[in-house]
Amino acid sequence: MEEGRRLQRIGRTSKDPVRLRRAIVVLMSAQGQPVKNITSLLRVGEDYARDVIHAFNERGFDALDPKWSGGRPKTISDKVRERICLIARTSPADWGIAAFSTWSLTKLAEHLVKRRVVTAVSRETLRRILHEGKVCWQTTTTWKASTDPAFIAKMHRVLELYDAPPADGRVVCVDEFGPLNLQPRKGKAWRPARSPRRLRATYNRYDGVMHMLAALDLATGKLYYRIRKRKREFLDLLKALRARWPGEKLYVVLDNFSPHKHPNVRAWAADNQVELVFLPTYGSWLNWIEAEFAALRYFALNGTDHRSHAEQNAAIGAYIRWHNARAEPKTNFAPDSPIRTWTQYPAKAA
User: Can you give the residue ranges of the Tc1-like transposase DDE domain (predicted)?
Assistant: First the structure.
């Protein structure tokens, strides 16, 4: 009786289809059902049913558990798989192949067979080998080397301001965003399968372009901006920031755009408790506001087709209001990045 209740419990709760089927076979047999009835109900062979019943009589409930054998053994050894991953990371030019500059799965499979690394391999098997070896398809990136001899010193100054803002003032990151054209912009959106949203491909610039000058306050995480027809109204932005936080010294992190270094800007900053902290040459990625610009472009502009600057400016303004309502202080800038350990500028990209 106890075995019967346990079999019934397995039949109600088991999520393993093999264990469930075997339990039902044993339970039906215990209830006096002939093998033909069991096979008819469960769609299994008579030999299978008899083997399950005999195994249960010999080993008890252990006979219900499936004994997975692990599948067919690998036909491609681990050593060969490692070599395949190494070859995939090379360029066809390294093998004297001038016809193409990168591997496809088909071309790589043909090359492996030609080099007798394997006798044969399908694209799916090759894809799985590369996936298991953590070799994936990636877009090539670029690296622009800086010629600034004071790169490390300037970088450490910026990181110091990010990590420990001075008690006597406020750190603000400033940059220009644009040009803001009136044009259809590619983007991504949730759509029915094989039914992408389509935008026009032709446009004109009869209404000109606009530029956004923006500032990121690290103490609050809020963005402050103005949209103008020219990028050279930088001094007006500084005066607006000065008026917003009177009595505090401003540490303004900015790039080497020529209007930022104009004598009038430098003189005004020196007279109004504003320290201009210039980034290293080709070091704009150190400006924290760049991350906010990337989010603005992704959420407010990509996938749009504004027909007027007023419409586009309104979309930007709506996003920034949404952002500021949820803003939090900016802390922990790239805490695990290799730049934290740099003592000299790297000769090439890591």
Answer: 170-304
